[in-house]
Amino acid sequence: MDSIFFNAYNTCDMKTQAGILSDDIEFFHDKGGLSTSKNEIIAATKKNICGKVTRTLIKGSIEVYPINKYGAVQIGYHKFFNNREPNAKSVPSKFIAIWKKEHEKWLMTKVISLH
To answer: Where is the DUF4440 domain (predicted)?
Structure first.
C-alpha cells in the first residue's frame, strides 16, 4: 500500500491518494503540526507537492507490524527531493503510518512525519 500511495503522490494522482486516506485521517508533521481534514491534506498536496517534490523510500528501512483486529503499523525512512532545487541535499526522515483494514480495503488512518 505504501508503494501504491506514494506512486500516486509522485504522479499527482489525487483520486488514488484520496481513496487510500481515511476520512478520519490524522496527519502529524513535526514542523507543520496536526492536520485532520482529508480535503485540506489533498488540496495542500496538490498545491505544494505536485510536480515539485518526489518521495523515495529508503530500501530496507521498512518495518511492518500487525495490530490485532485493526490493521498494521508501518515504520520506515524516506527522502523527499525538491525537483526545483536539483542540487539540494535530501536527508532521510522517519515516518510512521497506521493502516486500518476495513472491508478488505487498507486505509491510512494516522501518519507521523518527522524531518
So the answer is: 4-108
